[in-house]
Amino acid sequence: MRIGILGTGHVGKAVAAGAAAAGHEIVFGSRTPASHTDLGHPAVTLAEAAAGGDLVVNALSSNASLPTLPALAEALDGKVLLDIAIDLTADLGLAHLDTSLGEQLQAALPATRVVKSLCTIDNEAMAQPEKVFGTPSTVFLSGEDPAAKAVVGGFLTDLGWAPEDQLDLGGIATARGQEHFALLFMAVGNALDNYVFNFRLVTPRAA
User: Fold this and answer.
1) Which pLDDT does position 206 carry in this prediction?
2) Distance between CA 94 and CA 176 in Å, rounded?
3) C-alpha–C-alpha distance, residues 194 and 126, integer Å
C-alpha cells in the first residue's frame, strides 16, 4: 500500500518507520515539503499526499487538524483516514470536552472514512509493540465504516499489532474514550516518569 502521512513530527516518523519495515510505500505530506529532505521518504504537499495515499494517516500536531483537513476534502474523498491526532489546550487539558477530534473530522469530511486509532500510546510503541514491551497489549479502533476499520486493522497488523490485540470500540463517537484517555496517559506517565507504556485488556476467565 502507499501510505500518505500528513505531518512530519515524531508520530508521523514512527508510523512511517513501521510501515516501511512492513513493505509499504511512504510519502509525507507537509505544508513546506521542500524543507523536508531528510525524512528518508518523499515529501509532497498535504493535498498530494492525501490524494495519492491508499491509506492516509493524520499525524498533524495538536490543534492543526481542524484548520487543515477540511480544505483537503476533495483529495480525501472516499479515502480511509487513520486519525491519530489529539487536540490539547496550552495547559495540556482536553480541547474537546464533550466530543472528539475524530467525530469533528468525520462531520467535516462526510465523504472520508475516518478511523481513530493509535492515539492511546507513545509514538515509540506504535510499531512492533511486543518488541517494545515484551508482552501483548491492546490498541483500539473507532469508526463508522466496517470496511475502513478492516483496512486500518490490516495496517495495524503490519505494524505488529496482532488481530486479537485490536479492540473495535464501535462508531466514531467512541473516539471520545480514546482521546479522553490522554488524561490518564499523562497521569500515569508523570507517575512513572516514563511515557513508553501501554495497557492490556483483561477479562474474567471463563468458569
Assistant:
1) 73
2) 10
3) 16
**Alpha-carbon distance 67 to 58, whole Å?**
13
pLDDT digits (tens, 9 = 90+) for 132-189: 999 999 999 999 999 999 999 999 999 999 999 999 999 999 999 999 999 999 999 9
3-state SS string for the chain: CEEEEECCCHHHHHHHHHHHHCCCEEEEEECCHHHCCCCCCCEEEHHHHHHHCCEEEECCCCCCHHHHHHHHHHHHCCCEEEECCCCECCCCCECCCCCCHHHHHHHHCCCCEEEEECCCCCHHHCCCHHHHHCCCCCEEEEECCHHHHHHHHHHHHHHCCCHHHEEEEECHHHHHHHHHHHHHHHHHHHHHCCCCCCCCCCCCCCC
How many CB atoms within 10 Å of residue 99?
15
Alpha carbons 62 and 2: distance in angstroms, whole number: 25
In this prediction the pTM is: 0.96
Residue 120: closest CA among 58, 179, 59: 179
